[in-house]
Every structure is written in structure tokens, then in C-alpha cells.
Amino acid sequence: MADEKGVSITRLIAIPAVITFLVTILRLVGELKHWPAPWFSTAAGGGGAVIGISWLPIIFGPYFALKLANAGDGPQSAGKAIGFALGSLVVLFAGGAAFGATISHPNAITGLGLLLMLGSAFVPGIAWGSLGKALLGYAFAARIPVVIVMYFAITANGGAGWGTHYDVAPPAFAQMAPLRKFFNIGVLPQMTLWIGWTVVVGSIVGTILTAIVHRKKQVAPSAAA
Questions:
Q1: What backbone phi and psi angles, to 5 degrees, belong to 8?
Q2: pTM higher than 0.85, yes or no?
Q3: Cis before residue 38, ω within 30 degrees of 0?
Q4: What CA dihedral angle connects 70, 71, 77 and 80, to 10 degrees?
Q5: What is the pLDDT along the chain (225 residues), one digit of tens a residue?
Q6: Quick check: helix, strand or coil at residue 8?
Q7: Which residues share a beta bridge with 28?
Q8: How far is CA 43 from CA 21, 54, 120, in A?
Q9: Distance (Å, rounded) from C-alpha 213 to C-alpha 90?
Q10: Is 84 inside a domain boundary?
């Protein structure tokens, strides 16, 4: 995958994807071995453990953005890129609110919420296409391994699981059959909410930081003159 400027998106996201995969494996091992909090947690949802991948877009979003901008593939308008990135956050929150309000009694609004959370991942690319592609590719590269880990964690030991945060379900899902539980707490959130989160957070931090850095580069020569 490459954009018209010749920047390989696949190559750009390769090392971040490997690092993210290694963090996922480290977290799994740490939970299985009951390594201490706050670094690891087996609580449902992750318990805010330090070792995790949800905060990595804060690092890799700017990394992708600066690499692309320095290669001459920045946005046509920094303000527009930031605006769409912030707009994607609104879409993500709207989807999360719709999903959260109806999850106890799922209906069409619940499905709409999931679609909005996933859809938020496509909003930043409207203003900065290459960054949107990079973050979207990275998001799937980061989250597909988590889905695979969750499958094995949830179905292990005859459905009793491994006792990690990857298989511990909230009360509403605890009594579900393993495969149904996997779909509800594994596939759905990882492929909607967390895809959206990764792209949205990465794009917000990336577009803002790139605008600041390039603004400083433009000011520096003027000051020197």
C-alpha cells in the first residue's frame, strides 16, 4: 500500500504494529503470571493497567503524521485536518453514548452506535487521506491480534477461560456461551470501538503536533531573516 507521494503505508506501520503486538503478548504473559498492579490487571476491561496498547496511538499518531508531512504528504490545510480529527471524536462519543444507553436491551440503536464508533475511524482521512490510511491500517494491525488472543482466552478450559482481562466478562455477559461471549466482548468492541479510538486519538494528537512543528519551522526562517 503506497500513496501518490511514494510513502509506503505498509512499511510506515510495520514497526509500530510489531511493537504493539509485543505489548499485547507482554500483557497476556503478565496477567497469566499475576504480575503486580498497576502494570497489569485481570479486571474486566483491563482495570486501567499501565501495560496496554490503548495509549499507543498517542505516540504512533504523531509518528505517522510527522513522517508523512516530512515526506511532503501533509494535509492541504492543517486547520481542516485538525477540525476533522476533532469531528471524529464527536462521532465516536455519539456512537459510544448510543451503544451505552441501549446495551442492556440491545436494539437498532445499539447497532447504530457500533457503526458510528467504527465510522469515526474514517472521518480524519477526509482531510488527510494518507494519515487516515496509516492509522486505520495500524488500528486493524493492533486489534486483530487482540481478537485472536481473546478467542483462545475465552474458549480455554472448556469455556472457563484463563482468568485474564481478555476473558473476564462484565456481569451481563458472564453466563453466555463461550462463542457468544467472544463475539460480544471480543469481536464487537475490538472491531468497532477500539478501531475508532485508535484512529481518532492518533489523528487528534498527530494533526495538532504536526501543525505546531511545521508552524515553528515556518517561523524560524522568518525570525532569522
A1: -80, 110
A2: yes
A3: yes
A4: -90
A5: 544 456 899 999 999 999 999 999 999 999 999 999 999 999 988 889 999 999 999 999 999 999 999 999 999 999 999 999 999 999 999 999 999 999 888 899 999 999 999 999 999 999 999 999 999 999 999 999 999 999 999 999 999 999 999 999 888 788 899 999 999 999 999 999 999 999 999 999 999 999 999 876 665 554 444
A6: strand
A7: none
A8: 21, 16, 27
A9: 25
A10: yes
| Total of domains in the chain | 1
Amino acid identity of 198? T
Is 13 part of any domain? yes
Domain that holds residue 17: 9-224
Amino acid identity of residue 159, one-letter, is G
Q: Which three cell numbers stand for residue 222?
A: 522568518
User: How many CB atoms lie under 10 A from the CB of residue 198?
Assistant: 26
Residues making up the chain, counted from first to last: 225
User: 78: which 3 cell numbers?
Assistant: 492543517
Of 118, 32, 126, 145, nearest to 76 by C-alpha is 126
Q: Cell digits for 32? A: 497469566
d(CA 68, CA 59): 15
